[in-house]
Design goal:
By secondary structure, the protein is of the alpha/beta class. It folds into 3 domains: 213 residues, FAD/NAD(P)-binding domain; 107 residues, FAD/NAD(P)-binding domain (3-Layer(bba) Sandwich); 110 residues, 2-Layer Sandwich (Enolase-like, domain 1). Helices cover 30% and strands 24% of the residues. The protein contains 13 helices and 22 strands. The longest helix is centred in the N-terminal third of the chain and has 24 residues. The chain starts with a strand and ends in a 14-residue tail after the last helix.
């Protein structure tokens, strides 16, 4: 039997963050086992954040070259999609090597085991028939794509295997309306596909207010993406050339070349034998605010945890917090200080409370919204459809921020600082912003609390 101070089950963002944090805190003296299977680095670098953003940015370049937005400019562009996808996968391989494989070689105190871990008791797991014991465990097994039970759903792509596609679909159906669905819809629409988004829910994205998601839907629809929301798919018929999707509604069935299933992800925990370690779970593993499970020496972090947000940055934060708390810290995570974004175009990003949440809590609040047409840089970019929405309490403190704008994912961090440090809209107003930038929209929205911005010149303090 191999014995360790800490065993981490997983090889993704949460696992690496936990292993590195524990090593740093103990000057690389803590003996750590990292157990997992598949490509090192987990979802984010291999099939999530990294390839999807590469796809999105390339598709924007293709779209912009195909149709110039400024007067007096003309261009033409062609694409070898097979060659492009090969470059995408080579980029992923490079990032995995640099950010995970090479990084792990710096830590001689970490032993990597390739295989699936199953608990025997709270201090022991088996991996490929071998026993590994540890004083403490961190479960960081991530999540996997949820596949619905639909009649005729065969020969489809998911966000895990779409990276094997080598031909741009003429017509594409995406099942789902969350951030993954919207990002892939945007990318393939930019490449020229006729994209249909189909989902049982009648709205886009969880965690945003309706005015934000309605605006985003309108923008995406203007860009050619077709929405079929609030419907149940009854059957998918397949022939040699097309997939025909039947659903309950008055419209005709949709025939498409390819289908992507993007209906969310589910915690990857069913093979862990958690009962033998007395670890409680529902949909995901149950943890307290310190990332501790129902078993005192076992913690969990990342997508395997019972939580709404599934983010690489949140997983990394939780992994580090879990490792620190095992070693004597007393740190917790305030989910309202965690930003998240969908990298559709324009970006949509959020941090803090939404109106919907505050209403449910019967809390008083004040809302200000500005249209992106009030932002000079957005007009320069000829991408001025969007909203910046700020919510404050009666003492002017910022409670939440939601943004639809180009580059919103890059500057939502301003909202994080405002929420985390309980700053006010006076703090926004009294802080100079760079002009012209899209990020200046936050200041203009802050100024809308105290004046009519239609009567305000550029750079008004």
């Amino acid at each position: 039997m191999s014995e360790y101070d800490l065993a981490i089950i997983g090889i993704g963002a949460a696992a690496f963050s936990a292993a590195i944090k524990a090593s740093e805190l103990t000057s690389n003296q803590m003996k750590i086992a990292m157990i997992g299977y598949g490509a090192l680095g987990g979802t984010c670098v291999n099939v999530g954040c990294v390839p999807s953003k590469y796809l999105i940015e390339a598709s924007k370049s293709f779209r912009n070259a195909k149709k110039m937005v400024y007067d007096g400019m003309e261009s033409s562009v062609t694409i070898d999609f097979n060659e492009f996808m090969e470059s995408l996968n080579k980029f992923v391989e490079t990032e995995r090597e640099e950010k995970y494989t090479k990084v792990l070689k710096n830590f001689k105190n970490i032993d990597l085991y390739d295989g699936k871990a199953k608990f025997i008791d709270k201090n022991t797991v088996t991996v490929n028939g071998n026993k590994i014991s540890a004083f403490n465990f961190i479960i960081a097994t991530g999540s996997k794509t949820f596949i619905p039970d639909l009649k005729g759903l065969v020969n489809y792509y998911t966000s895990d295997n779409i990276w094997t596609i080598r031909k741009i679909p003429e017509k594409l159906a995406i099942l789902g309306s969350g951030e993954v669905a919207l990002e892939l819809a945007n990318a393939f629409s930019n490449f020229g596909s006729e994209v249909h988004i189909i989902n049982r829910s009648n709205r886009l994205l969880k965690g945003f207010d309706d005015d934000i998601t309605n605006e985003l839907r309108n923008i995406m629809a203007k860009n050619g993406i077709k929405f079929h929301l609030g419907v149940d798919i009854k059957e998918i018929k397949n022939n040699k050339e097309k997939k025909i999707i039947f659903y309950n509604g008055t419209e005709q069935p949709i025939d498409v070349d390819e289908i992507i299933v993007a209906m969310g992800r589910q915690p990857n925990i069913e093979e862990l034998c958690l009962e033998k370690a007395e670890v409680k779970y529902n949909h995901g593993i149950l943890v307290d605010s310190h990332m501790k499970t129902s078993c005192e020496n076992i913690y969990a972090a990342g997508d395997c945890v019972e939580q709404e947000l599934k983010l690489e940055t949140l997983a990394g934060k939780e992994g580090a917090v879990a490792a620190g708390n095992i070693l004597g810290s007393d740190e917790s995570i305030n989910i309202k200080e965690i930003p998240w974004a969908a990298f559709c175009e324009p970006n949509v990003a959020s941090v803090g409370y939404t109106e919907k949440e505050l209403k449910l809590q019967n809390r008083d609040y004040i809302v200000r919204k500005i249209d992106l047409k009030n932002v000079v840089k957005a007009n320069i970019l000829k991408s001025n459809e969007g909203i910046v929405k700020i919510i404050s309490d009666n003492e002017k403190r910022i409670l939440g921020m939601q943004i639809i704008a180009p580059h919103a994912a890059e500057f939502i961090i301003e909202g994080v600082y405002l929420v985390k440090h309980r700053l006010t809209y006076d703090d926004i107003i009294n802080t100079s912003h760079i002009f012209p930038t899209v990020a200046e929209s936050v200041k203009i929205a802050g100024q809308s609390f105290i004046r009519d911005i239609s009567k305000m010149s550029c750079c008004m303090e």
